[in-house]
Amino acid sequence: MEHVKTQTVNTGPWTTYKPLILVALFIVGVTMLVELNAGDFTPMRAMNTFMAGFFIFFSFFKFLNLNAFADAFSTYDILAKRSRTYALAFPFVELALGVAFALNLYPVAANIITVVLMAVGSYGVWLVLKRKGTIQCACLGTIFNLPMTKITLFENGLMMVMALASLALHRS
What we know:
The chain has 172 residues and is mainly alpha-helical. The protein has helices at residues 13-38, 43-63, 66-73, 84-103, 107-130, 150-171; strands at 136-137, 139-142, 146-147. The longest helix has 26 residues, at 13-38. The protein is globular and about 45 Å long.
């Protein structure tokens, strides 16, 4: 009798969220390296670097399969549901925001756009969570099968808070 080896598939939180955790750690790492290189910690620069990394990394994964991203995104984003053009343009907007934050270009406009995009996105996520829907989160594109959870709402909220803080710091 031949023994067949079976492989146990671990579907725990680490396995599910590993890509998201690694991306977050890389973004935090790059942010800390920039601050270390600068010789001092400046909250505005750190937020800009983090936001640049966030938008650039997240847009990259969406570009890997733009059409699949647009399909997944349109299942929960209230604007993407109504406009395929918006769903397809979203990664380009994220990339542009990442570049704007990295180069400190048009900081007020970049932060206002971030607040609006994250608020709209949060509303769509909240609607899915409210009805206890189980759908794929397209935050890292469709390469990874991440479920829509409160973590998605936290990501959007964190970006909104940082953009609002940047606006407040910019005005003072």
